[in-house]
Amino acid sequence: MAFQWYTRGLDKGFPGMIADATNKIIDSYAVEEETGLEPGDAVIQGTDENQIKKYTGSGTVIGVVMHHHKESSEPYYPQNYTVPVVTSGDIYVKVGEDVTAGDAACLMASTYAWGKTGTAVSNAYYYKGADKDGLAVVRLRTPATAVMQGE
What residues does 104 pair with on adjacent strands? Predict the structure, then answer.
């Protein structure tokens, strides 16, 4: 019987991938905008309660677009596609600058990429850090009052 060994050099994940087996809340929304969404994008509430759109400098981030396997397209999730959004849990994101575990998760002002400078995302921090253009793990937590009320 032959054994296969996995090297330590394998990629640890990809943007929008669930990072671990911790509890998480994943909600479904339709993509509102024509420009679509990519896994790992920070999103805000859309015009309709069932829609979301990419964070572009205003609004409250409600979560991160999760990756699910499908036929690849450009954008990955086109307008009106139903996407999973992690609103509480650990998820991989691509960072636009070096981040360290424990840093507040922010969206950079010029690019809206994940980083440690710019607009802080409420209830989010880096659980695992990364170098610029690498993959970090963002930990999103639902506010304690919502959890206590069963929301």
Answer: 125
